[in-house]
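Suppose a colleague, Dr. K., hands you the sequence of a protein chain of 130 amino acids and asks what its three-dimensional shape might be. Before reaching for any lab equipment, you can write down a predicted structure in token form. Begin with the sequence itself:
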Amino acid sequence: MKLSQLKNSEALLEEQLQSNSEFRAEWERTAVARFIAIEVLRHRTDRGWSQRKLGEVLGMTQPQVARLEAGERTPNFDTLVRVAAGLGVELTINVTPSNRKPHLVTKRARTANAIGEIHTDRANLLVAAG
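The predicted structure, expressed as tokens, is then:
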């Protein structure tokens, strides 16, 4: 097989989302967790911090930070507050019905500050940080 025939990660993901309903349901269920994990990990690595150091800043243990960065469980409100306050970032989580575009968030939040966006049959989800 030639290198040009290999699928990239986006193509493989799209294939799984289209063909595997269980995978798609789990992907949608964990969207907020993944997006927050990306932001937390980005801040930690940009600062050269260990998970232990980030935990000290957020008032969490290293295992709690590891679970947060794994992106498998949606963080609760208290955890989101700790992340926003500890990292000094504004977090926006916007959910709209699938047939509507968001009206309550800025264009910048939808573009430059977007961490992630997912569209399902029922709703659209946008997570932004800045």
